[in-house]
Design the sequence.
């Protein structure tokens, strides 16, 4: 499972001109399930995201987690994180989970996140989404869980 985290001052997802998910300060989580991933990878990814210390403390040092700051999570499905462009100019997405499995794992991740964290917003799996954000820092962290 792969994720790209962006620490944000705010972020939102629009579909067909309508905002479907939005947060203030927190993390934008672009999430990709890959072939062979299951609930164990989703659980480990969520635990890592919630505890990752990438928010500033009083001394300005990255020492606080999204849980410590009570920041929001905006979780957006992003199968293109599985892109392999090593063989040419057109990326291959064969490592991405098949759509049904990707949806199941995305929905599982979101459900678990909502149990563990008070503010979780989402996009819509498989939709054509426009994601807007104000990257705070900027801080962008790639994660991969096997």
Sequence:
């Amino acid at each position: 499972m792969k994720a790209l985290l962006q620490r944000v001052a705010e972020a939102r997802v629009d579909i067909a001109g309508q905002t479907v998910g939005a947060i203030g300060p927190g993390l934008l989580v672009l999430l990709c399930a890959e072939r062979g991933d299951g609930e164990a990878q989703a659980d480990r990814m969520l635990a890592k995201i919630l505890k990752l210390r990438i928010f500033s403390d009083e001394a300005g040092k990255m020492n606080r987690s999204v849980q410590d700051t009570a920041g929001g999570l905006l979780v957006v499905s992003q199968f293109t994180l599985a892109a392999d462009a090593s063989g040419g100019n057109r990326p291959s997405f064969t490592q991405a989970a098949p759509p049904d499995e990707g949806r199941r794992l995305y929905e599982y991740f979101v459900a678990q996140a909502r149990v563990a964290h008070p503010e979780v917003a989402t996009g819509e799996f498989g939709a054509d989404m426009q994601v807007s954000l104000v990257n705070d820092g900027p801080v962008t962290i790639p994660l991969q869980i096997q």
Observations:
- The radius of gyration is 15 Å.
- Residues 33 and 102 are 5 Å apart (CA to CA).
- The mean pLDDT is 97.
- The domain at 2-85+92-131 is CATH 3.50.80.10 (D-tyrosyl-trna(Tyr) Deacylase; Chain: A;).
